[in-house]
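Standup notes
- DV: blocked on the single-chain target, sequence here:
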Amino acid sequence: MGGSNYGPDQRVFPRFDYLECAVVHIPGEESIQAMMVDIGLGGVQLRSKKPLPVGTPLTISIGKDKGGPINMPGILRHCTLSTEGEHIYIAGFKFTPQTHEERAVIAKFVHEVFTRYWNSVA
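- DV (later): unblocked, structure below
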């Protein structure tokens, strides 16, 4: 790692498996349905049937049982076609909150995911 804070895949924070449907909002374009497959404080991995624009500021929305959807701003770091024989794109989404409120919403949501995970393995 050479003194870097990053792991071999450039993540600062650990990720946990998490399957949840999400909507990716792309400025000036139609939204795209995606599946979140893991999550951490730094971002999520998305899978979609359509390619997502790398380097573009986006917002992902996740429905909640109680209340309205959670909106998390970020930027797509990479998007590649799966080599597993499926026509699925794998994308890395990094959270880019701009306000304290956005940071709090993301942190609370990720904390809830981690809590559910640890309660399920305890």
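- Follow-up: Strands lie at 16-25, 32-39, 43-48, 57-62, 70-81, 89-95.
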